[in-house]
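User: Let's play a game. I give you a shape written as tokens, and you guess the letters that built it. Ready? Here's round one.
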């Protein structure tokens, strides 16, 4: 028998609108409307971070959270505390990342490749001056 129950997540607990009649030692399937969580905590605007998905009300991109968590091994709790974010928004960012991982990783790789090519084609004036000074000092 299937039954649809609506509930609200208050940041800590999933609270159903009507009492649930659950039996001990029985499995239950739960489907969650992640889009509602995404739209409440994640925004995309061409005016903010060039259209990268960001935590609502901030310029902190989903990919920034993913890098801190997955590569830098920072806990989600520490990220929330360090950047004055709600824990729910940080978890929503990670959920959004996993739901859109291929697209976010591809865009990040393209940005990195562009930056590397730009640096190769446009050397720093300071680096050029240092090279000249080092070359003059060798003579």
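Assistant: Ready! My guess for every position:
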């Amino acid at each position: 028998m299937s039954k649809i129950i609506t509930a609200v997540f208050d940041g800590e607990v999933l609270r159903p609108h009507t009492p649930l009649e659950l039996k001990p030692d029985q499995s239950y399937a739960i489907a969650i409307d992640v889009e509602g969580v995404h739209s409440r905590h994640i925004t995309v605007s061409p005016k903010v971070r060039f259209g990268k998905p960001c935590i609502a009300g901030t310029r902190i991109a989903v990919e920034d959270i993913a890098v801190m968590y997955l590569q830098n091994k920072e806990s989600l709790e520490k990220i929330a505390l360090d950047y004055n974010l709600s824990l729910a928004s940080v978890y929503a960012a990670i959920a959004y990342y996993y739901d859109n991982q291929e697209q976010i990783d591809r865009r990040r790789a393209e940005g990195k490749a562009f930056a590397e090519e730009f640096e190769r084609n446009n050397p720093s004036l300071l680096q050029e001056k240092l090279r000249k000074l080092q070359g003059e000092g060798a003579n």
